[in-house]
From TrEMBL:
Pfam families: Acyl-CoA_dh_1, Acyl-CoA_dh_M, Acyl-CoA_dh_N. Residues 131-221 form the Acyl-CoA oxidase/dehydrogenase middle domain. The keyword Oxidoreductase applies. This is Acyl-CoA dehydrogenase. It comes from Fluviispira sanaruensis. Residues 17-127 form the Acyl-CoA dehydrogenase/oxidase N-terminal domain. GO terms for biological process: fatty acid beta-oxidation using acyl-CoA dehydrogenase; fatty-acyl-CoA biosynthetic process. It comes from the Bacteria. Belongs to the acyl-CoA dehydrogenase family.
Amino acid sequence: MDTLATDFLNTFQDLDESQLLIKETVHKFVQNVFMPNITENFENAHFPKEIIKEMGKLGLLGSNLHGYGCAGLDEISYGLIMKELERGDSGLRSFASVQSSLAMYAIYAFGSEEQKKYFLPKMATGDTIGCFGLTEPDFGSDPAGMKTFAKKSGDSWVLNGSKTWITNAPIADIAIVWAQTDEGIRGFLVEKGTKGFSAPEIKNKLSLRASKTGSLFFDNCQIPNENLLEKTEGLKNALMCLNQARFGIVFGVLGAAEDCLNEAIHYTKERIMFKKPLASFQLIQRKLALMSTEIAKGNLVALQLAKLKQNKKVKPAQISMGKQNNVQIALDCARTTRDILGANGISGEYHCMRHMCNLESVYTYEGTNDIHLLIVGQHLTGIAAFE
């Protein structure tokens, strides 16, 4: 890995020994355990569940949460973990991000003490897998319009509705489900095996193929009152979870971008064209220099957001700016690398096309590119253009 190319401004030169060790450990894990089978797994739409408990042993699940068996790492360390996971594949980072920043964080922030003690330690080890049910077939960018409804019935709730495009859904043991109630939007813990609950896989994806995605269906599901996330009180709580995950994306996608740039540099130095290395041509060097420059800028954005988040000073609009900016950078780097590699760029032997396909989804999920720009626009003007 060429750190000069991918961290041209030495943004991360002051990492402490612990942070460096975390980065190196996750990098080795991804390269040695995950990457040998990624081409086959992507082609066969297979997520290697067998590595989940290994991730748990390394402390990668819920890593920036404190207590309950979680590692309690700082926000820079969490970001570096996401970056190394996505250097491997966006699907791998998506699994860890949903498990940690959506499912575990929702319980951590809004659950009862009993719920936290029961679920979080098992989720930290990877023995229990979670998913996060917010998006519905008719309500993506407008989650407040959700139709899923939970009606209080004695000492339980009756849940009806559906969610879609839910990462981890087909393999999850527990779903964090957001639903309308007579009291407003609340969060519920829906356990696998609950009568009337199903989570079928979404097939034929052309992106995030090494990741499991599904729908959630609820047909008169009876949810015990103790499975209500008691501290939830409106859509703002779900959006707080999304901000946690979006922060991880800010770092994560840079891993994919860096992998593409390294691939482009290596390829152009080895590829002979008109009797000299492809890297010797001005157009190629311009493309490489622009990619390195954009990644350097993205690193600065990520590090600053991590510092703000660590000090509890980060604003949702700042995370939106980072998510929108860095995903665009990563997608552009993947497309440029695919272009540089020519016909070879579409081969599974190389990584850029896989990264490009994955990043098309990351560009859209957890807030589309346009929605994040409008969130920043609202912060600048005080006017909500999407309402």
